[in-house]
Specification:
The chain is α/β, with parallel strands linked by helices and about 375 residues long. The chain has 2 domains: about 5-240, Metallo-beta-lactamase, Chain A, CATH 3.60.15.10; about 250-370, Serine Threonine Protein Phosphatase 5, Tetratricopeptide repeat, CATH 1.25.40.10. It is about 35% helix and about 20% strand. Strands 1-2-8-9-10-11-12-13-16-14 form a 10-stranded mixed β-sheet, with helices on one face. Helix 6 packs parallel to helix 8. The relative contact order is 0.10. Mean pLDDT is about 90; it is low at about 1-20.
Length: about 375
């Protein structure tokens, strides 16, 4: 996809248009969690906040998904899994003005709900998609909006914001305040537990109680809809998940059970050996999930078995591809440290450069920069 810039610095992307819907229509598809696909009348597809399908949520991601552009509000694994998009769609994370075909995109600087996101400075880009005469806002894991953010967002017709009955991101009063300030005609809840799919995550509630408090609720009974006009009265629109979203396979659930047991076991020599055995079993059950390889590597290092840790991490990284950036970078960070302890500065530097280039976590970048020296590089994120 060719890239060019306007004189004032806003990025313009030229997208191949196909599978067009009728003029003036906008297709919205709910994948699950906070992930949506918005398709313009010209066929441009924006994938917003794809989630990792092997962690926390208890269900898969239906990869691949065709997209002309990927929008990421913030770098948490349940919002930043752009590696599931097919092809080479550009990934936008930072505030600014963009255009892809007939889709105009505005990124507004926001803040992640506290106390989450401290490891990357609490950034949370608020996205507005202007398409087919509608303005659709996706707020990611927003906290309360500042007056400046509200002004920058402007008119919002369709509002996607986090809602759940355990107030994981926003409290009831905060949800009400945001809706009152933006006055959307349609509110789409997201970031809640899909109880019909899984009992996970335990820290995330459903939206059942919140919906009972709302005067106008429309349950679509499907994962997608085509909008041509706005409703006369403000309403809450509830999507079903994509039918391609499935509960975790038994092997992955069992792997997470082993990981939980490894974490909760006694901190005795016998307990540490049992934890290592549990993590080895988790790696065998779900080799695609980098969490288990990294935690096995750490457990081996804590037991003084550094070379065994290297033997775990090297093949895990070779098979990782682009999946789960966070734990791929944690694996590189640990492996770099092990290479440095060996005295292999060349291999350590190679891993630390990759960490420095891609990591959003401050702790990882600081360790890489301490090894490589100041001014040795800059993050791409």
């Amino acid at each position: 996809m060719p890239w060019s810039r306007k004189a004032f610095g806003a990025l313009v992307l030229t997208a191949a248009l196909s599978g067009r819907i009728a003029e003036g229509q906008v297709r919205i598809e709910y994948v699950a969690h906070s992930c949506f696909v918005v398709e313009s009348p010209g066929g441009v597809r924006a994938l917003v906040d794809p989630f990792n399908g092997t962690r926390w949520l208890g269900y898969s991601f239906p990869a691949p998904i065709a997209a002309d552009v990927v929008l990421v509000t913030h770098p948490h694994y349940d919002h930043d899994a752009s590696y599931y998009a097919s092809g080479h769609a550009p990934v936008l994370r930072r505030p600014g003005e963009y255009a892809v075909g007939d889709l105009r995109i505005l990124g507004v600087e926001g803040r992640h709900a506290e106390p989450w996101g401290e490891e990357f400075g609490g950034v949370n880009t608020l996205w507005v998609l202007e398409v087919g005469g509608l303005r659709i806002a996706h707020l990611g894991d927003t906290g309360l909006l500042s007056a400046e953010s509200l002004r920058a967002l402007g008119r919002v017709d369709v509002l996607m914001l986090p809602v759940d009955d355990q107030d994981h991101i926003l409290k009831r009063s905060e949800i009400a305040a945001i809706r009152e300030a933006l006055q959307p005609r349609v509110t789409v809840p997201m970031h809640y537990r899909l109880a019909e799919v899984t009992s996970l995550p335990e820290s995330l509630g459903t939206i059942d109680k919140w919906l009972l408090e709302q005067p106008e609720v429309v349950r679509l009974g499907t994962h997608e809809t085509v909008l041509e006009r706005l409703p006369a009265k403000p309403q809450v629109m509830v999507f079903s998940r994509s039918p391609r979203v499935a509960p975790w396979a038994p092997e992955l659930r069992e792997a997470w059970t082993h990981r939980h047991r490894a974490r909760e076991g006694p901190k005795t020599p016998e307990g540490r050996e049992q934890a290592i055995a549990d993590l080895r079993r988790a790696v065998v059950l779900a080799p695609q999930c980098m969490v288990f390889s990294v935690e096995l590597g750490r457990a081996l290092v804590e037991s003084g078995r550094n070379e065994e840790a290297v033997a775990v991490l090297e093949p895990a990284l070779a098979a990782a591809g682009g999946d789960d950036w966070e734990y791929t970078l944690r694996a590189r960070d640990l492996l770099a440290d092990l290479y440095a302890r060996r005295g292999d500065a060349v291999r350590a530097a190679l891993q630390y450069r990759l960490v420095q280039r891609d990591a959003y976590q401050r702790e990882l970048r600081e360790r890489a920069e301490a090894f490589l020296g100041p001014g040795s590089g800059a993050s791409r994120r």
